[in-house]
Amino acid sequence: MNPLKTLHAEQDQAVWLDFVARGFVQEGGLKRLVDEDGLRGVTSNPAIFEKAIGHSDEYDDALKAAGDERVIDLYEGLAIADIQAAADVLRPVYEASGGQDGFVSLEVSPYLALDTAETLDEARRLHKAVARDNLMVKVPATPQGIPAIRDLTADGININVTLLFAQGAYEQVANAYIEGLEKFAARGGDVGRVASVASFFVSRIDAAVDKLLDETIAAANDPDEKAALEGLKGKVAIANAKLAYQRYKRLFAGERWQTLSAKGAHPQRLLWASTGTKNKAYSDVLYVEELIGPNTVNTIPPATMDAFRDHGKVRASLEEGVDEAERVLAHLAKAGIDLDAVARQLVEEGVQLFVDAADKVLGAVAGKRQTFLAAGLDRQALALGSLDAPVKTAIETWRKDGLVRRLWQRDAQVWSGADEAQWLGWLTIVEDEAKKAAEYAAFSAEVKQEGFTDAVVLGMGGSSLGPEVLAETYGHQPGFPRLRILDSTDPDEVRAVEAAVNLERTLFIVASKSGSTLEPNVFRDYFLGRMRDVVGPDKAGRHFVAVTDPGSAMEKAAKDDGFRRIFYGVKQIGGRYSVLSAFGLVPAAAMGLDVAAFLASARTMVRSCGSDVPPDLNPGVQLGLAMGTAATEEGRDKVTLIASPGIDTFGAWAEQLIAESTGKEGKGLIPIDNEPLAAPAAYGKDRFFVYLRLDEGADPAQDAAVKALEEAGHPVVRIALASKSSLPQEFFRFEIATAVAGAVLGINPFDQPDVEASKIKTRELFSAAEKDGALPAETPVAEDDGFALYTDAANADALRKAGAGSDPESWIKAQVGRVGAGDYVALLAYVTRNPEHLKPLQEARVALRETQHVATCAEFGPRFLHSTGQAYKGGPDSGVFLQITSEAPDLAIPGRSLGFATVIAAQARGDFGVLSERGRRALRVHIKGDVAKGLDRLKSALS
Ligand SMILES: O=C(CO)[C@@H](O)[C@H](O)[C@H](O)[C@H](O)COP(=O)(O)O
Ligand SMILES: O=C[C@H](O)COP(=O)(O)O
């Protein structure tokens, strides 16, 4: 008879197969083993699935058909289907054995091996999902696993206890089984239909102990002792297993067990696992031949099974030489090798090995998912040059430490251990909002029905920049209102919005999370006043909706003023992470975008960046690690954003996210948006480039410039969007990336202390001005007909020492003279934001970059105060600032004694005050009269 068959027929030992794979089961390989070799069970583990799924294309059709699912669901779907198929093949064995054999094992996620409650949940979930009587759920025998084993047994679930190495742990496991059965019986369960195995790992013990023996032998002097120790090699694992078997016999005897036995309970069989020979010097069937005994199981890997079928010898070996086994272990102890310590280490390593395997198999599934999604997922490619090695190290650290999972579990220790856990609502907002897609669609239809021609978002920063990207990227949708944004207190900008719309057919979306931000409140006061004039006080509220967090003052005011509708944000989401919540979706719906499709696109990236996607395949995490590491390892902290025409306003949203999240405590990334592209030589070694390329309509000049940058060794991340409709993916990618970069920098990426500081200063200044009738007078450090220059005493001192004299140009030159390598220059313009004003600022940037070889920013106040302003004040002290203010004719605000001109002036002063307090290099250039002329003069001075 085939020796494999003989094991069961003559020795009452069940042969199980330590392997499973789709084709093998589907094509009848498993059935053949059952029929021809008398196979009685199958075990799987993460490493086995890693081999099956990660290294074959057998699963590709199933993955293609599944499409855009979570990676863990894809993996589990494959694994569960294989386990079910194998269980069905083994069902006849199960039936014939009266439910005592014919099992297939599926292991709980190794990520949970150190958590009792989660192991319990997971085992119960898998038990239900597989839905086969002959399933055994595998639970590791970690200290946390043991209570779970007891409780699961008490549920009547069949458990395969895995990762057992030590006698002591085995005893606890057997007792947990007995206790579980007692509980199950007490609840009226039929203990006779519960089966369990305790998997003792064998060969790994020899591999570990032999190594220690070699070290001991090398250190020993006595040749006899050396020889005796040599004789222990390849003996310890088997001795350990033999003694475990003796213990098994004792544990499943005696009164306590007899009580259960009388109720039909079956002992928990010992299963020999890890029975493939690792040391080529030993027999290839060693761990089968030496462990043959009744009522045991050996789960055998395919190669060992082939070898045993070919030349295995069957004899009742398990009960042989028990005394000798004792002597082997005593000798080992005498030689100073602590088997318990070895076992403890093997459990730890065993968990880690399965974690590594799970990472690999999830990575393999994630990789295939990406391939099969093809153009449905925005592609990302990193060309990091010298950063490659440190980023790889960071990726491995994140993998080993399970940091992607911990981020998703909202573990504040991923960052600074402050209140980060309370600010992670954006991780799950896409799923939450998708449930409300019908509500958004109804709102969209209502807006269309009402015949609004314009919808104007009144808000700042996190409440306006996302909507602005939508308005600019997707444009006017036929039949829907045109979406406009007002995020400036510049009187001319307010007037321009008013002039552009027909108030009678305009919907205002007042957006403020806190509800207390000055700007949206004054915009609201202004336009509500105007609307009352135009349509009458009763109807004015119908032209307004609010988006705000529950309980805010804005909510109350909106109710009092009879707003058409109030939409709510989520308190656990900060403004800059809010675009995929009501703050982005209400404007999206108002302008006629399909919110369901928008969220479905975002969800593809959410899933691609999931907790189940290891860092090397996780696009958001990868980008974040690259950005963070670039800053910490090489000082490449100027994240330079390049985007194809058509999606180029994305940068203004991304710069807020990056700057406000990371720029604090003297650290941070400085985003550089909308800087005209140049040849590689124009850039310093402080740059890190991110290129968002829109396949349809990419600019060949940008392509060429980016290619040149890459060839010159600058780190470049390319992100390719098949079409504009996949832009929502980028919001989420950048959110994860920014959070991860924040973790690398070791800061809290969810607060904005310096933005708050300047908001407070502005409010104080404006209130004082309302009381006093004007802002306090200031004395310029230099002045002529066109410019008046202001700064604080320390800056004035430094600038005078650097050559500033009586004329404004000398001050500007002295300020530029303070720029050094690695610095950036920021032009902070409190002027009307329009193309005419932007042009000279952009030209000045180019000139500054050419002469100073530094990164440059051009920002419009007050909007940047809610954005990059955080990093300018709180980030690295590498900014050289030129604040630019101007004089627009005032515009009154209903209910306020002072108008918009004072608001914007207070904002500029508040901003400057905080820059001064932080000791930043700052100079204010006030343009008298014509702004465009003043900006041209400034440009010349800067050139
Ligand atoms: O199901 C079990 C144990 O219950 C087995 O799959 C067990 O995990 C394997 O035998 C071992 O992981 C294989 O170990 P090794 O041969 O890699 O040392
Ligand atoms: O980025 C956020 C801005 O400071 C606006 O805040 P808010 O939405 O509370 O008005």
UniProtKB/TrEMBL annotation:
Transferase among keywords: yes
Signal peptide positions (record): none
UniProt subcellular location: Cytoplasm
UniProt keywords, alphabetically: Cytoplasm, Gluconeogenesis, Glycolysis, Isomerase, Pentose shunt, Schiff base, Transferase
PROSITE patterns the UniProt entry points to: P_GLUCOSE_ISOMERASE_3 (PS51463), TRANSALDOLASE_1 (PS01054), TRANSALDOLASE_2 (PS00958)
Listed GO CC annotations: cytoplasm
CDD domains given in the database record: SIS_PGI_1 (cd05015), SIS_TAL_PGI (cd05798), Transaldolase_like (cd00955)
Catalytic activity: D-sedoheptulose 7-phosphate + D-glyceraldehyde 3-phosphate = D-erythrose 4-phosphate + beta-D-fructose 6-phosphate; alpha-D-glucose 6-phosphate = beta-D-fructose 6-phosphate
InterPro entries xref list: Aldolase_TIM, G6P_Isomerase, SIS_dom_sf, SIS_PGI_1, TAL/FSA, Transaldolase_2, Transaldolase_AS
Gene3D superfamilies on file: Aldolase class I (3.20.20.70), Glucose-6-phosphate isomerase like protein, domain 1 (3.40.50.10490)
Active-site residues per Swiss-Prot or TrEMBL entry: K138 (schiff-base intermediate with substrate)
Entry EC number(s): 2.2.1.2
Source domain of life: Bacteria
Annotated pathway: Carbohydrate degradation; pentose phosphate pathway; D-glyceraldehyde 3-phosphate and beta-D-fructose 6-phosphate from D-ribose 5-phosphate and D-xylulose 5-phosphate (non-oxidative stage): step 2/3; Carbohydrate degradation; glycolysis; D-glyceraldehyde 3-phosphate and glycerone phosphate from D-glucose: step 2/4
GO BP terms, alphabetized: gluconeogenesis; glycolytic process; pentose-phosphate shunt
GO molecular function: carbohydrate derivative binding; glucose-6-phosphate isomerase activity; transaldolase activity
Keyword Phosphoprotein found: no
Family: Belongs to the transaldolase family. Type 2 subfamily. Belongs to the GPI family.
NCBIfam families, per database record: PRK03343.1, PRK09533.1, tal_mycobact
Function of the molecule: Transaldolase is important for the balance of metabolites in the pentose-phosphate pathway.
Descriptive protein name: Transaldolase
Organism (species): Methylobacterium currus
Gene that produces this protein: tal
